[in-house]
User: Which sequence fits this backbone?
């Protein structure tokens, strides 16, 4: 039988303070999830109720509903409580539809790809 180490106990107690509160969870792949913490374990696996993924592209944002969501602890980078009385986003942000966000993401990727191909074409120049 294995016993929890002191680090596991401190992690569990710190997450216990967030139960039934709205959280922002930043994942290793860069996604941002929002939802109410309903459960967790010693590995920081968490269950969010009413979860949604917040996608931000430039000044546009969209919340994509996910429902009940289980997140494996090894993918969690950061967990933070959201203050329900404060505005979550800066005033210059505009809510967009899922389709508009996907178009903006594609345009951003295409611009990034173009920048990369232009850089490759210019490699023969020595800027050092």
Assistant:
């Amino acid at each position: 039988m294995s016993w929890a180490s002191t680090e596991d106990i401190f992690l569990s107690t710190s997450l216990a303070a967030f139960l039934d509160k709205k959280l922002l969870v930043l994942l290793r792949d860069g996604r941002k999830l929002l939802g109410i913490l309903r459960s967790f374990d010693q590995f920081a696996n968490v269950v969010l109720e009413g979860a949604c993924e917040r996608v931000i592209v430039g000044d546009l944002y969209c919340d994509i509903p996910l429902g009940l969501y289980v997140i494996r602890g090894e993918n969690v980078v950061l967990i933070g409580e959201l203050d329900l009385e404060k505005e979550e986003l800066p005033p210059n942000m505009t809510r967009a539809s899922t389709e508009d966000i996907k178009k903006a993401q594609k345009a951003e990727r295409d611009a990034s790809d173009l920048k990369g191909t232009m850089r490759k074409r210019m490699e023969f120049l020595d800027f050092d």
The beta strands are 22-27, 32-40, 46-57, 60-71, 76-81, 94-95. The two ends are 60 Å apart (CA to CA).
